[in-house]
Amino acid sequence: MGVGKSTVGQLLAERLGVGYRDTDEDIVAAQGRSIAEIFVDEGEPAFRELEKDAVRTALAGHDGVLALGGGAVLDADTRALLAGQRVVYLSMDVEEAVRRTGLNAARPLLAVNPRKQWRELMDARRHLYEEVAASVVATDGRTPEEVAQAALDALELKEA
Questions:
Q1: Could you write out the DSSP letters of every residue in 20-33?
Q2: Is the pTM of this model over 0.85?
Q3: DSSP state of 136
Q4: Residue 135 carries which DSSP code?
Q5: Alpha-carbon distance values, 43 to 3, 40, 99, 117 (Å)
Q6: Which H or E run includes 65?
Q7: Closest listed residue to residue 118, CA positions, set 126, 110, 108
Q8: Which ranges of the chain would DSSP assign to H, the alpha helix?
Q9: Which residues, 6+ apart, have CB-to-CB distance to 17 below 8 Å?
């Protein structure tokens, strides 16, 4: 959350001359409501099913840069689909998250005690991100352009 996946993803797509897609945006468009509303109305398990379907659909029909929501890797089937893909895990520490988002945005999983919840989420997810990642790129103190270049370098990709 707040790591810059959308901004960096769009930059990567532009530099590579390919399309960009975000599964969170796909879910919002298909459902006609925000992710926060889905969480409130139907709960996290229902959202995770929508997310799983969105990732599966996007991986099957999109060959450009794909940004996934932070919880997508929680699903074992999704992790299996990501195996062999050029996945970049954009990492940051809690202080950077605070600086970027203030941890007060409309984040359904960070509603109470956001710093503590962010740390707990990352403790629970970090190993999953690393499991699917071909490369890990730290975003702390970097501009989106620097992160995009680091991702290109890490994946040994050339700009179009």
A1: EEEHHHHHHHHHTS
A2: no
A3: E
A4: E
A5: 24, 6, 28, 17
A6: strand 65-67
A7: 110
A8: 5-16, 23-31, 35-42, 44-61, 76-82, 94-101, 114-132, 144-155
A9: 159, 160
Question: How many Å apart are CA 113 and CA 55, to the nearest integer?
Answer: 29
As a whole number of angstroms, the distance between CA 95 and CA 115 comes to 9
Residue-wise pLDDT for 19-67, tens only, equals 999 999 999 999 999 999 999 999 999 999 999 999 999 999 999 999 9
What pLDDT, in 10s, does the model give residues 55-86? 999 999 999 999 998 899 999 999 999 998 99
| CA separation for the pair 145, 7 (Å, rounded) | 9
CA 123 to chain centre: 16
* Dihedral of alpha carbons 17, 18, 24, 30, sign: positive
State how far the Cα of 116 lies from the Cα of 72, in Å rounded to an integer.
21
Measured CA angle at 23 (ends 106, 152), to 5 deg: 105
